[in-house]
Design goal:
- This protein is α/β, with parallel strands linked by helices.
- The chain folds into two domains: 156 residues, 3-Layer(aba) Sandwich (Rossmann fold); 167 residues, 3-Layer(aba) Sandwich (Rossmann fold), CATH 3.40.50.2000.
- The chain has 13 helices and twelve strands.
- The strands form two sheets. Strands 3-2-1-4-5-6-7 form a seven-stranded parallel β-sheet, sandwiched between helices. The chain has a five-stranded parallel β-sheet with strand order 10-9-8-11-12, sandwiched between helices.
- The longest helix is centred in the C-terminal third of the chain and has 30 residues.
- The chain is globular.
Length: 361
Amino acid sequence: MARVLLSGYYGFGNLGDEALLEVIVERLRQRFPSVQLEVLSATPAATAEHHGVISTPRWDWRAIRGAIGRADVVLSGGGGLLQNATSTRSLLYYAGVLREAIRARRKTMVFAQSIGPLDLWGRLIVRQFCRGLDCATVRDERSQGLLRRLLAKTPVERTADPVFLYDAPEVGTDLASEGLGPESGAYAVISVRKIAAFRDVPAMLSRAVDRLAQRYEIRSAFLPLGGAGDAAASTDVIRACASSPMLLPECPLPRAASILRAARVVVGMRLHSLVLAARYAIPFLPIAYDPKVSALCEDLKYPLEPLWSPGDRRPSDGTIDALVDRLVAERDALAAHLAERRAAVQAAAERNFDALGELLS
């Protein structure tokens, strides 16, 4: 009986990463019923209870080494783990788990990740720590090229984010308790997070939110997928608005997915707000705060350019208005485009599990 150890950003309450874990666990059980699963988690008891897996504290290196010793395969991912835009400490942690597994002669796989951004030190860490990695699947073409340059002997395949396969359980879609009942009309979901260049975000995003409300009578609801940090960032934007958007309470993943699925449009920074929007063919206006967001739009061949990318000048009010107008006016065409792309990206997402099966065999 094979045993798989999952290393990722699990147990922190980030709904995007929890959606990743949900899909990975469900697909592994479906594809490989005899596999035993162990997850490194910040909240191991909650992860074990919710997913029915063995879970190990992610900060306890003695426990981690024990988990690696029990594993046949160590998966790093999904998500954006091998990058040091967040911090070099974070990169050292995830690359360190892989290094321990390679040294222990376990099969190792980078699984459905975005790679980078990596500075000179980051590239050195990945090259040295991940030498001997058995295989990798990555979520976009840019990541594939970067990892191939760093690990020339490792097969690197481009796939897609597993959350494209997420199927929300049937839950009530009555959102009256959140102020989004039938009488409130169409609404937009807004997903925002703190970044280093955040000072430009409230003015840009509040302009877009006010345009949706004042010209199209589409009320905005801020959905904090990343927990308290996202709620604080959302509050900063709401205070800059002339209209009356609302901040939704933190909620479980199925509820968040239902809220996204019923939205008229989405304006998003969080990658998985956009992945779920694409999954349900809900048109979105992206804020490409990270290369992984730009890469998603490129892979989807999405016709609407981002509202803003770091390094760009803040867009003019006229540019913001024009993008919002296109989002609304072209909604049906954008939805049809996403629906048409869905089969291809879901097949690519399934390929992650095919590659793991080849490694397990």
